[in-house]
Amino acid sequence: MKPTTMPRILLVEDDPASRAFLTAAAQALPSVVDAASDCAHARHLAARSGAHDLWLFDANLPDGTGAQLLASLRAAAPRVPALAHTASHERADLDPLLAAGFLEVLVKPITAPALQGTLRRVLAQALAATTIDAARTDADTADAAWPTCGKLPNWDDAAALAALGGEQAHVDALRRLFLDELPGQRRAVAVAVVAGDVEGAGRELHRLGASCGFVGAARLAAAVRWLQAQPRSADALQRFDAAAGDLLAPA
């Protein structure tokens, strides 16, 4: 998914009324929704469309389960984020769905705003991961000047707007909070890495990476991912520190 294109969602729900509600709510993001009533139809739509940016599967379907459908589609599309939805509140039903590979399980009934908020967040995280992967590919061939002339911009406004429902005021407010917290997070990461505390650095980087996705901090997100992959690397720490410093530098 590119920041300038609408995301495409594969929705699978056998109940007609629920399918219509979920489709309308997802389309209002906005997004393109391919809606299926069972596993067979979902597989057909997945093969026909070529690519989806997110899967939203009912846990129980007339010809199988959401977990079975997820497993069957994973071979061709291993990185599409997947959400499950179910009417069950029981941990015995919810935990196996998470174990099967669904990022989250939405418990019905769910409101349109709650569904849309979850979809926006997951789509934004997927977009950020795609951007980070592209940055890592660039970094493989980049020279030692990466910290001061990275190819990614400091801010990806389109990604931030997509994550926050197109509300520029929300983007501005969240970025102010993000920048307020960044100095402390920057120090915590550096201290952990220098001390060899891989677990502690990982916790800080995980939190920071998620925040980067919401506010569209493209270059810092790439540096976070790089340092997560090489938590003992002085070069990766330098890249991270430079990217954070650029965001915090006076305009």
Report on the structure:
It is a single chain. With 251 residues, the protein is α/β, with parallel strands linked by helices. It folds into 2 domains: 8-110, Rossmann fold, CATH 3.40.50; 127-248, Up-down Bundle (Four Helix Bundle (Hemerythrin (Met), subunit A)), CATH 1.20.120. The protein is built from 11 helices and 7 strands. The protein has helices spanning 16-27, 39-49, 66-74, 91-100, 112-141, 146-149, 157-163, 168-194, 198-215, 218-229, 234-248, and strands at residues 8-12, 32-36, 54-58, 60-61, 64-65, 82-86, 104-107. The protein has a 5-stranded parallel β-sheet with strand order 2-1-3-6-7, sandwiched between helices. The protein has a two-stranded antiparallel ribbon with strand order 4-5. Strand 1 (8-12), helix 1 (16-27) and strand 2 form a beta-alpha-beta unit. Helix 5 packs antiparallel against helix 7, helix 5 (112-141) packs across helix 9 (198-215) and helix 5 (112-141) crosses helix 10. The longest helix is centred in the middle third of the chain and has 30 residues, at 112-141. The radius of gyration is 20 Å and the shape is elongated. Mean pLDDT is 84; it is low at 131-151.
Q: Please report the distance between the alpha carbons of the first and last residues.
A: 30 Å
The number of helical segments is: 11
Q: Using DSSP, what is the number of strands?
A: 7
Largest sheet: 5 strands, parallel
The Rg value, from CA coordinates, equals 20 Å
What overall form do the CA principal axes indicate? elongated
Order of helices and strands: EHEHEEEHEHEHHHHHHH
Text of the CATH class of the largest domain: Mainly Alpha
Provide mean pLDDT, rounded: 84
Oligomer designation? single chain
